[in-house]
Design goal:
Layout (H helix, E strand, L loop, with lengths): L4 H38 L2 H18 L1 H14 L7 H14 L3 H17 L3 H17 L3 H18 L2 H17 L3 H18 L2 H17 L3 H15 L5 H17 L3 H17 L3 H17 L3 H17 L3 H17 L3 H17 L3 H17 L3 H17 L3 H17 L3 H72 L4 H117 L5 H35 L9 E4 H12 L8 E8 L3 E4 L3 H16 L8 E10 L2 E8 L29 H12 L3 E4 L7 E7 L13
Parallel strand pairs: 2-4
Antiparallel strand pairs: 1-3, 4-5, 5-7, 6-7
Length: 824
């Protein structure tokens, strides 16, 4: 995949200009910072305070440690009521913020806000509110950040402070972007850009364009992202902001990585790293080393990847940035996994997971768990890999990390397929396809929404321009009327000034002609704007047609996939039916064979006795022998006929009836108490003791009748399989938990448990280890079907150090499915 043709020439020219200007930019930055430090060293009192504020205004980002030293020195010099105290405290707090010392930063900001309010310094108060919003956004408190931004915007609008209005709108765009509200983010970014245009703040315009590109990149609109990045690059080249040039290099490199052009991505990241090293920007160097490590890993260059990731971890530890250090651990875990160094990979990934859980970074958690799931799959730890993939799915959904969510579903489908759980594999594959289609549609909608927002903002700006023009015209007309009145009065009073009057009129007509020319130019520009608007509508129409064609192709592909899925389901059904028929035949064959044998023996005995009677050779011993044979054969036939009927009855339970009656609301804990009381009254369960523990509510809308069979089957499994000693007491624990609109019931006993190599077969029909004692092997299979089909839940076995443990998860509210609406 390549960049669109219309952007390649722009990009190449911009890259050439960057290379030519870098030396000048770097030296200019170093000279400016060094000059400020020299002036600070030789200055005293107020002059020194002003120079320190100039230094730490940008130094809090580039050199936070040195900025802390300078700010602390300045605070020791000035008094508690000094006019610059709030400003110094604000930049000191930002220095700690860039070192990730958030508690210290918040404490300093609170002190700065109090001082600014006491001094009624609205300018400082706006600065502090902006810093508060930065801190809240970094800690993922987006609502709190928007509150601070709203207060700051109110101050800025009341004072008509265009620069602050731009800054707060830019920050609002960042917060909305990180909370996945793209249309509001774009709207705020465009407003910020307009305010910065009015103040001619090029660097802030560049930053706003970068943020807009990031928003478009978040939902896959790479052409729009590239458009904004190239516009930002062309603007930043007109300044001497070396750090921002490095950032733009980095941003374009990330776009290259997105389109899998790793060679160009690496080249751009290396250029960015070179600039950051030149200006001593350590935090930026960590990001570049991490990005380079990931790009080299994706390109298959493991040694270069390891070198850069190791350097990133070293620098992150040096600047005491735990966040960046654990980002490096995540990338190192992926790299060592790729080269089959699984123990080292597991160490890094587990460290990263612990930190991300502690700091509640759900987006990074989803990535780390997905990497761990792939690692465990490579080690054939399938059950552990499933747990990791589920965690990745959970945190991916919480952070709206769609790429991770899709990969998690694919991973779960692969893992379940390896475990021969084709039903679960197919379910995850279906969810993957559904979510993929949903994300595609959402991305298209978000793209259209952002285009609409851009158009609306442009229309509003155009209306404002039109109003300004109308006001100018009205003002000119009023002035013209006043002039005419003045001329009439002067002509009647000063008849002798006709020559002066005519001269004045001549000048006025010349001015009016100039104004008409100006109006004609304005009208020409309005015509140009109308033509541009018409072209914009044509572009939108072309994109709409393209999207329609793509959607039709996707619908065709989706239909093919659905047909393939239906065929797979039919094949799976036939395989299951074949296995079931074979099991039924095997179980029924034994009693029927015995019946046939006994009947044959009875017929032979009857024929022999008949012959003896006909020959008049009947004796008492012969009669007794015949009667004993008849009795034994009849008993065998009766017993095996009853056994066959019992088997048929059990087979019928395999088919779960569809319930048409609506589910009823009941308290599950009370239902289980009643069922257990009735079951423990039976002789076979007399040595069972049970404990019921409840966490949260157990109110549920479902079918209560099935719990008798579920618990009876589990108790029978415990008594008959879990204990070899018939007199040993049995302890059973039942736990009910409420979790995320579901009820989880955990059944645990203290028996011998189930061997690990047999766990995957326990829910299969006709599987039993006590067939010699007459067991059929349908108990767990029947209740598994009850839970999964009738109760719409799930059931699985959970390994314990001692005893067996079964977990049943049911929806709190069971919906009755209308079969007529089901698609087959």
């Amino acid at each position: 995949m390549l960049f669109p043709l219309q952007y390649r020439g722009i990009y190449c020219r911009s890259l050439l200009l960057v290379i030519l200007c870098c030396c000048f930019h770097i030296s200019a930055y170093e000279n400016e910072a060094g000059l400020l430090e020299k002036k600070i060293a030789v200055s005293d009192d107020e002059a020194k305070i002003a120079l320190i504020i100039d230094y730490i205004r940008d130094g809090n980002r580039f050199t936070p440690e040195k900025s802390i030293t300078y700010a602390s020195d300045a605070l020791n010099i000035i008094g508690p009521n000094h006019a610059s105290r709030a400003t110094l405290l604000n930049y000191l707090a930002l220095s700690y913020y860039h070192l990730n010392e958030f508690t210290k930063s918040r404490s300093l900001l609170e002190e700065a806000l109090i001082i600014a309010q006491q001094q009624k310094n609205i300018h400082d108060e706006m600065l502090v509110l902006m810093s508060f919003s930065l801190l809240a956004n970094e800690l993922r408190n987006h609502d709190e950040a928007l509150v601070y931004i709203g207060k700051g915007l109110n101050f800025a609008q009341s004072l008509n402070e265009l620069q602050f209005m731009g800054d707060f709108n830019a920050l609002k765009a960042t917060v909305y972007s990180e909370s996945y509200n793209s249309d509001k983010a774009i709207e705020a970014a465009l407003l910020a850009y307009q305010y910065y245009q009015q103040t001619n703040d090029v660097e802030s315009m560049v930053q706003t364009l970068n943020n807009s590109a990031s928003i478009y990149r978040s939902f896959g609109a790479l052409d729009k992202a590239l458009e904004y990045q190239l516009k930002a690059l062309s603007l930043i080249l007109t300044t001497s902001n070396v750090k921002q040039i490095a950032i733009n290099y980095n941003n374009i490199a990330i776009l290259y990585k997105d389109i899998q052009d790793y060679d160009n991505a690496i080249t751009m990241h290396l250029e960015s790293l070179k600039i950051k090293m030149s200006i001593g920007y350590l935090r930026g160097q960590v990001y570049s080393h991490n990005n380079l490590g990931e790009a080299y890993r994706l390109a298959g260059k493991t040694s270069e990847a390891l070198e850069h990731l190791t350097q990133a971890a070293h620098l992150a530890d040096r600047i005491n940035s735990q966040k960046l250090l654990h980002y490096s651990y995540l990338y190192l875990g992926r790299l060592h996994r790729d080269v089959a160094e699984y123990k080292i990979a597991a160490m890094y990934l587990n460290k990263a997971i612990i930190f991300f859980e502690k700091t509640k970074r759900t987006s990074r958690l989803s990535e780390a768990y997905l990497a761990l799931a792939k690692l465990l799959l490579a080690e054939e730890e399938l059950e552990l890999s499933i747990d990791a993939a589920r965690n990745s799915l959970l945190y991916g959904k919480q952070s709206s990390k769609n790429v991770v969510v899709l990969q998690s579903y694919q991973m779960l489908s692969t893992l379940y397929e390896k475990l021969n759980d084709y039903q679960s594999a197919l379910a995850n594959e279906k969810e993957f396809q559904r979510l993929k289609d949903t994300i595609f549609n959402e991305q298209q909608q978000r793209f259209m929404q952002t285009l609409r927002v851009e158009y609306d903002v442009e229309q509003k700006q155009r209306k404002i321009t039109d109003l300004i023009q109308q006001n100018k015209i009205s003002t000119l007309e009023v002035e013209q009327e006043k002039t005419r009145g003045y001329v009439y009065v002067m002509s009647s009073l000063f008849i002798f000034s006709l020559i002066a009057f005519f001269y004045y009129r001549l000048n006025q007509r010349k001015k009016l002609a100039d104004k008409r020319i100006a109006l004609e130019k304005i009208q020409a520009k309005e015509q140009d704007l109308r033509e541009l608007n018409a072209n914009l509508e044509s572009i939108v129409e072309q994109r709409t047609q393209s999207l329609t064609t793509t959607n039709k192709a996707l619908e065709t592909t989706l239909l093919d996939l659905k047909n393939t899925q239906d065929n797979l389901i039919e094949v799976e059904k036939m395989a299951s039916l074949s296995k079931l028929v074979a099991g039924v035949a095997h179980e029924v064959n034994t009693p029927l064979g015995t019946i046939v044998t006994a009947s044959s023996f009875l017929n032979e005995s009857l024929a022999a006795f008949k012959s003896t009677v006909e020959n008049n050779e009947v004796t008492r011993d012969g009669l007794n022998t015949f009667l004993m044979a008849v009795t034994q054969s009849s008993q065998l036939i009766a017993n095996n006929t009853a056994r066959s009927a019992e088997l048929i009855s059990e087979f019928k339970q395999i088919s779960i009836e569809k319930r048409s009656d609506p589910p009823q609301a009941f308290i599950l804990a009370d239902c289980i108490e009643k069922v257990m009381t009735s079951l423990l009254a039976k002789v076979m369960f007399k040595r069972v003791n049970y404990t019921l523990t409840l966490h949260g509510s157990s109110a549920i809308t479902s079918y209560s009748a099935y719990w008798l069979q579920i618990l009876e089957s589990l108790l029978s499994n415990t008594v008959e399989h879990g204990f070899s000693n018939d007199e040993q007491p049995i302890n059973v624990t039942l736990t009910i938990e409420e979790c995320d609109k579901h009820i989880k019931v955990t059944y645990t006993d203290d028996g011998c448990g189930i061997p690990q190599d047999k766990v995957h077969d326990i829910f299969e029909p006709f599987y039993t280890t006590l067939r010699h004692k007459g067991h059929v092997g349908l108990g767990l299979h029947i209740i598994y079907n009850m839970v999964a089909q009738t109760l719409s839940g799930s059931m699985h076995y959970q390994e314990k150090k001692k005893g067996a443990c079964f977990v049943i998860v049911l929806p709190q509210t069971l919906s009755l499915v209308d079969e007529s609406n089901e698609q087959h």
